[in-house]
Amino acid sequence: MADEHEPSSVDRRKFLKVVGVTGVGAAVLTGCSTDKVEKLVPYLVQSEQQVPGVATWYASTCTECSTGCGLAVKTREARPIKLEGNAEHPINAGTLCSRGQAGLQGLYNPDRLTGPMARNAAGGFDPISWDDAIARLASKVGSASGKFAAINGYGPSTFSTLMAQWVASAGGTLVPWEPFAREAERKANERTWGRSDLPTYDFANAKHIVSFGADFLETWGPVVEQQRGFAASHGFHDGTMSKHVFVGPRLSLTAANADEWLNVPAGSEALVALAMAQVVAARGGGALAGSLAAYAPEQVAQATGLSAAQLTALGEAFAAAQPSLAVAGGIAAQHRGAIDLCHAVNLLNEAAGNVGKTVRFGAGPAAGSGYGEVLALFESMRSGQLQVVLVHEANPLYALPQSGKFAEAFAKVPYKVSTAAILDETAAACDLLLPNLHALERWDDLRPRAGVSGLLQPVVEPVFKGMHTGDVVLRAGKGVAAMPASASFEAHLKEEWQKSAPAGDFDSYWRASLGRGGVYAAAPAATVSLAGGASQLTVTAPTFDGDGEFVFMPYPSSMYHDGRGSNKPWLLENPDPITKITWQSWVEVHPETAERIDVREGEIVELASPHGTIRAQVYVYAGVRKDVLAMPMGLGHTEYGRYAKGRGVNALDLLGAADGQGFLPYVSTRVSVKTTGDYRKVARTDGNPRQLGRGIIEAMPLAYAAKGMTPEEAMKSEGNPAHEVNTPKEAAAIAGWYESQTERTKLGNYAGEHPKWGMAVDLSRCTGCSACVTACYAENNIATVGEEQIFKGRELSWLRIERYWEGGEHGEPLEARFSPVMCQHCDNAPCEPVCPVYASYHTPDGLNGQVYNRCVGTRYCSNNCPFKVRYFNWLRYSEVAWPEPLNLQLNPEVTVRARGVMEKCTFCVQRIRGAQNTAKLEDRTVRDGEIQPACAQACPSGALAFGNVHDPESTVVKWKRDPRGYVMLEETNVRPAVTYLAKVLHRDPVTAPAAGEH
Amino acid sequence: MHKRFVPGIGIAMTVTALMFVTTHPAVAQKPATGPAPLTASDSASLKGPRQPIFFRHDIHAGQLKMQCQYCHYSVGVSSEPGIPSMQTCMGCHIAVGGKSDANKAEIKKLKEAWSAKKPIEWVRVHTVARHVHFPHMRHIKALGPAACATCHGNVARMSQVYKVNNVNNMGFCISCHIERKVSRDCTVCHY
Predict the structure, then answer these.
(1) pLDDT tens digits, residue range A199-237?
(2) How many CB pairs below 8 Å do chains A and B form together?
(3) CA angle A313-A318-A324, nearest 5°?
(4) Which residues of A touch B26 (CB under 8 A)?
């Protein structure tokens, strides 16, 4: 931290401003020596909001996608160190996804531009002053005489209105940009109900959920809110749970959380929806039944590959569970029939009477413009009609298919301006760079839906010399009559908010709004009715470009989203929830297909479509149709900083750029495959994908869970042999041994009353989304190790999501099981007795302690751990994982581990000690729920409970009493402190041996 | 965990940074017995590192009987005791200019730094290793507001602060914890 010898891109003065004070600072642990003299530099003026050593929290709004979740920003000594959800926010209610949490690595990204720059004669960039930069922008826009356009990727806000005003005042065109805009849904809604906005979906109250390619747990819609709702209904509660069916050619994370996956051919989803709608309507005697007669199950069974009986049963089940919910519109179903599909699903919801119940209009985000407008803009660039283009919060040269030759069109514009904070593909093609401030550095607001106005406030001095684009626009538009004369964007924002403020003191209203993170009101409810002719729908099979053997299905990565996440090490290192691949791109091939075309995992194949060719590593995956090749989007950048540049391939390179019907049809290409003979190891973090009878992630049918059976009883009832059990000799050796130790556990430091910390994990709520993993990295200063080290199995993820596959062979359905696995803090921990230096030991409050400064790195503990949750710090990761200023994200409450020590989950002991300290100062004991480890805090599903197991009233004890509770690897007699509650399946109980490996 | 939302911008003007510079040789010297008439040039012969301003704890805490927490304001609520901001110094020294020439000279340094908006870079005396978490507030809570001397010695009698106890020696911590029958668990401090 104090090493000032390295030439730093951070302005030194600013650097000092954001560096934290504190004796136990976040500096890298370099040893115990205090020989060096340190200096204590006081504040000139102490901020009343900051107490050294005590975190200050600010409310703000997340801008990592268009959802607009509320943030609680934890700062220490004026630097943000962790992003959590704002509990008061109506959308995310206190939790946050991985992408949102990783926004911190956007703030401190070492590749951020250091200031405004202009292209020089040699083709490079020269730094210029902000005054110069703004003068250049104003002069170019002024002399463009209306031949000016701007792309704005920021959502509905005061800023976007200002931007529109400025562009209009210059006679230019403003094109809104939204990654993965949901154009097909809007167009279908227009057809069905005559309105183009999007409804909100109430997953929490739906008793039967059918998704037609909509990845509502990953990238489609407000995923955190939807996941919370899904967990509420699909998590086992009160003896019941909702059923979830996924229809689509690929088993995505959302599909993996479904009770039934129907892998129909790409393009036939609409037929399934219509057949279901027909059944539902016929059952209820609705008018729709007649108009949909052509789509009765018997008519469409063949095209969908499902039997008429199956389709009828689907429809019957959907109608029987009231209210139900059907959703469609994910990118992986965005083929040329996507509007028909969304229309069909709308009819299905209408037929089942869900509209107004689980499908509610009124709050939906305002209508976006969509792909057609983007294409038109690039056409005008191509034909030389534009003199100046400004790109804000968008990277079209990466996010649009290469085959559209958008870069060529862009190059034809004489003067191009970018406000990107990091040199991305589009910025690299620009002439003037005006880096915007990060969301945590600026004043802003965001109105993601009706009723929700989120505020953003600067929580840190700008880390680099960026400038708020709002200020740039105000200064460039100075003197223009149509532009506000505000002195700064901050002033403008307040002026705008004042207009809608209630009568009374604005200042207190403003401060109260900032404290809450915005203003939240109930969304106005709108009633909708079927538009004329909406019930008449003619579905035509979508067409595909090319005549390759396979349908190519690119899907948005749950970590990288539209590609903006791929410069953040946390997201690169957090394994894909399904494949467990890190830092790489891959193409998913069905096992039978792989055998037929003779490829194995890691083999590099060449995919060719009429629009392009890419080379990618094979990942053999049973969760993709035999006639489909799937690939995640988000990698394959040619710019965008050290972490993203040159990593992986861009799936969009295979796509055509032609407009579908107002949207980019992502699934519209057929590809052929050619083997290349090249190989690259796949950087997977999972071990054996099968449980092999170890009973690590238990599951039981709903009927048994409803009866209050234990997983073991359920196993026996189904006639399955029990999991690995102790031999009689082992059992005799174990019997009574643990209990006999109690006297010995009351000696010395262990005497007296202590709490005992424990955890419970409800596997029927866990979706495997991995938000907890990112939270753990952020809270505990876990170093990211990179692809090469992951090849060697050296990742340090204290908390990992285990993903095991069941079935998938011999015609059995493929089933995924997810479980967070962290240190189990065993009472009878095998790691403790083998440590020669007592670095691993048991604390009086039931933790399995790990004392870094004692550890000498024998790794005996890790060898003896049956859960493999101890991670060895092999190299000087702490010196390379956080290049300046990324080191500013480090949590000063947690020691940064040096090379050669073992590290592992501590149950966030720093939070336990913090809560104990607070309680002691207030002369009380720690309250239940006061301590939340980072993983439990972040979980959008609420799948983790933590607390004192000696407190019979605590939530964790209530969870642990659930009959579904079990501990992993019970036969080892290690007595874990983590109880898992078995997953509950919508599978009919059988008496014969069930699917899987048991 | 208790969250405290603070509305508004909370940017400190200047924040303390940890920096490494060369070690200053400490010179042995008899402990002062009261506020002695010393000048900055005497400080070289006093125990403890020389400070950029010859700040006299023996005058402030001893003669004037100022509470430690007047300046070390967060010691009761935070792990960090808090180093007084320049504003705190100036709160008094805007009016107090010192009586002796020696004191006047030192206070002048402070005023100059204040008008130049340059914080004084004090030399740190007490440090614990970075894998140790020492919650000051717990110790103040348990031992009372005057307990500072337990570890820091009688600072009120020091013309220049020096180390009486090696606070970075775990034995020093543990002997007290054993004596007072409080936790000796490793993860109380090491995590």
Answers:
(1) 999 999 999 999 999 999 999 999 999 999 999 999 999
(2) 264
(3) 170
(4) none
